[in-house]
Every structure is written in structure tokens, then in C-alpha cells.
Amino acid sequence: MTPTYYLLLSALLFSIGAVGVLVRRNAIVVFMCVELMLNAVNLSLVTFARINGSLDGQVMAFFVMVVAAAEVVVGLAIIMSIFRTRRSASVDDSNLLKY
Amino acid sequence: MNLLVAQAQQIEAPEIDYGAIAPVLIVLGAACISVLLEALLPKHQRWAVQLVLSLLTLVGATGALILYATSERRPAQGVATLAGAIAVDSPSLFLWATLLVLAFGSVLLIADRSVEPGGVFVAQAAIRPGTVQDRAQATKTGMQTEVFPLTLFALGGMMTFVASNDLLTMFIALEVLSLPLYLLCGLARRRRLLSQEAAVKYFLLGAFASAFFLYGVALLYGYAGSVKLSSIAAAAAGTDRSDTLLFAGFGLLVVGLLFKAAVGPFHAWTPDVYQGAPTPVTAFMAACTKVAAFGGILRVLTVAFENTQWEWRGVLYGVAVVSMVIGAVLGLTQTDVKRMIAYSSVAHAGFLLIGSIALVPNGTGVSATMFYLLAYGFTTIAAFGIVSLVRNSDGEATHLSQWAGLAKRSPIVAGVFTFLLLALAGIPLTSGFIGKFVVFSAAIEAGLTPLVVIALVASAVAAFFYLRVIVLMYFSDPAPDGPTVSVPGAFTTIAITLGAVVTLVLGLWPTFVLDWAGTGTFLS
What we know:
By secondary structure, chain A is mainly alpha-helical. Chain A is 78% helix and 0% strand. The relative contact order of chain B is 0.10.
């Protein structure tokens, strides 16, 4: 089994996440798609660590997990506050700022 | 498993040059203390204590920076510490000093309670807008003092970002600077719906962009086998490795960086967030984030990708053109003064990108861009300070029609704002002119003359919308129900004066700052 397949899988997951951010309307789902992108990156980091024969990539994956966790805290706080105000988490409803 | 054991035996504690990184340690340490104070102090004491702590921190960090920068034992080419993660060289020190002084001005604006009774931040962010409790808290004088630790954390992240010597450190610093800013955007006392909306937009787009940055890091790690900037440069210098990984990684990385710097086609968040965020936070973002993002871009392009510049220069060339055109043309159509300055910042980001891609061997591109950043930061902080003064019963009066005839109501405020707009337009005798001059001459030296011509046209178009505001303030009659100009307290006055004086002084005697910016290049 060559590691290249994992890179392709990671690219696929990253693309699914990116498309999801662009097409989904619920802020929570958009945010989950961003998390999917971060985890796709983790997969390629670990695969590259295997290909390069060094542990750096695996250590980086831990850093990414910690950052993703911190991002969840901040992101859910912000989405919660706007949900309580508007009774909706749809990104289409937030349309006061334009032009 | 064997690999793991073999590597574990090699690990030894890296050497840490505490003197060199003292400014960052002071800022981040004080941010932690500030969080503790938030938990331990009674509510009525927090504002005063937090403000004193923040200002002392900034002064202390600047002192540590000056001590280190002038010390005898500092190697001239800079030093890489923390196992090569942080590079403290001349550009790092220059950008740190710029960030610290700009943050000083921003903290003063953030802390001000004279213009808006109780400060521009909400007393309790958890209360739902529009409810009875929310109307009650609008009259309360307290504010969420968490803004001080958040500002310090963001500043610590920015300082790490401009000095980070590998891409992983850069990613962590990017998040440390961004996450507090997302929160700060959503804490306005007035117009809370706009503020919360700005926070959501900034957060979702920011997280999206940092995912791109991170994928770029992963691909470059796959390419070079290391995320150190110097290893990437070494790997790119004549190997038979796959160029796909290198350029795909470079592209994704740069998208993340350009997003933070609000450049060109990646600017979509800028006007909304600048308009919706509380004005002092907008000032902090516009000045300090710009410095940090372009500091990072300069370091990445110079240290890691200088060898391959002929492959990527055309792309960033195009991005710079798009950014200047978008900023100048869309700025013309704006009716809100904060949005107008936001589009002006997009145009300025294009000018800064010209300086960043002018990689001439003697480093004038880097020093010119850093000078421009410093000049632009001070002008912007003062401009947003003025914006916060023009108010009506509903809070800030940011619609341009409300600014008509402002010179008749308050000649001083209108005069200072005129001066700052002229500096943004790049009229001689202001720092904006010198900044544009040095950046454009570096670009011509690097053979980017067509780009400079486009930039000059874009500056001329942008000058139109600055001058339109000046004409509006001086030659229109004030509306009968127009806004009043608040008399600022000491904090806002100091911040505006600092910005305006630096803008003037650098317009008249720029040499000493230019010399200082040109003292050295990036450690590679």
C-alpha cells in the first residue's frame, strides 16, 4: 500500500470541506466543514511524516488538533451569541452589513 | 517504534535567548496575569487595574526591546532562538517596536470612557440584544474588561508571527492573533447586531483561510521534509523534487497570508468587519494586523521563496493590481466612512504587496515596505480615533452625509482628519508620501515599472474619494440634525495626537526611521 493514496484521500477530504464551506448555509455546518479541512491536513501531515521518515509531521498534527480545539471554543461562542439574537444560525440571515 | 526511540534519544533542550525574546514573553505573560485578574478582582476595580497593567506591559516590553536592540552582544545579522523557531533580527525588532507603539495607541482608544459613557464595549456580552436587560445595560457604565487580555494575546501573537522562522510557529501565531480578534469584533456596546454579524463573518472566513494556510504548510513539509523557512529555501535551490508540491504549497500558504493582510481578491471580509467592529478594535486590526501580516509575508517571501521568485512573481504581480483596482474603484462608491477607510486599506495592501515582491538584493524592498507599514499604521489609528468622535444620539455617525459641514462645527477635528486623509492619499509633507515614494522606488529598482504606473493611477483614483470627504466637510452646509463632535478625554486625545504627530514628523524627517528600517535583512 503506497502512502500516495492517503495523500489523495486527504486532498479529497480537504476539497469536500472547502466545497461545504462554500455551499452550506448553516453556520455550524460551515464550521464543521472547516474542521474537516483541518483534519484532512492532519492526514497529509502524518502521511508526509511517514514518507519523509521523520516525526515532525506527527508532532505538527498534535499542534493542529490543539488549535482546532481552541477554534471550536471561540467559534461556537460567537455562533451561539448570534443564534440567541436571531434565533437562526443561517449565514444568509446575517445580511445587515453590505455595500 | 524504533524510529520513535531513536529520535527520543536525540532530543535535548534547546537553548533559549531570553534577552532576545523578552518583549514577547512580557506581553504574553502579562496577558495571562490579566486573565487571572479578571477572575479575582471585584468588578468595579477591573477597568483601572487592567488598563494600568496593559500600558505598563507595553512600556516594559518596549523597554526590554530597546535594551536588547542597543546591547553590545547582539549579533548584527540576528539570532535564531528556541531551536530556530523564532528569528530575532533587525526586521523583527523594527516590526516589534512598531507593533508595540501602535498597540499603545490602540489600548488607549480601547480604554477610553469619555466619548461613550462606560466605553465602547458592551457591559455583558451574554445578554441578548433587544431585551429588557439589554436596554438596562445600555445605561450602565461598566464594560467587559476581557478586552484587555484579548488585546494583549492578539499582540503577542502578532509579535510571534513576524518573528517566526518556521511555518508551524507561524501557524500557531496566526491563530493566537486571530482568535482574540474574532471575539473583540463582537463586543460593541451600540449596534450589537452589526457587531455580532461582523464577528461571525470574520470568524468563518478567517478559519477558512487558516485551513488553506495549513494545507500549504503540509504540502511544503512534504516537499522539503521540514517546515523551517531556510530548509524550504535550501530544498527549492536545484533539486529534482516535485515542483507540484512546492508551488501548490506556496499558493495555498500565500492565500492564507493575503487573507489576513486584506489584499486584493481575498478582501471580502474587510469592509464588513471594519464597519461592524467597535471602532477602537477596527483601529487595532487595521494598524497592527496589517503590520503583522505583511511582516510575515515579507519574511516568507524573502527567506523561503527568494530562489523561486521568477516562478511566482507574476501571480503576486496580478494580485497587487487586482487589490489596488478593487480598493480604489469600490472605495469611490462607499457612503460609510468606516467602509471607505476599509477599501482604502485594501488599496494600501496592494501598494504594500508591490514592496513585498520587490526582492532586490540590497533589501530596499523590505525596508521600504516596513516604513510604509509604520507610517500607515499611525495614520489609520488616528483616523479611526477621529471617526469615534463624530456622534449623534445613536452612537457614531459614520454615514458620509452626516459629515457635511463638519468644519463649521469643529474646525480642529475636521483639520486633523483632513491632514490624515491627505496622508492616506500620499500628498507630500506627510508620511504617506514618503512611504509611497520609497516603496515605488524599490519596485522600479526591481524592474516592476509597469506595476508602479498602475499604482500611481490607483493612488490618483483613491485620492478622489479622500478629497470628496474633505470637500464635504469644508464646503457643505451642516445638516440641522447633524452629529455633534464629542470632546475627547485624555486617552483618545493622546492616541490621535500620537498618530497625527508621527504622520507629520515622518513626512518631514523620515531619514532616521528609514535608516533604522534598513539596518539589516532577514536572518536566513
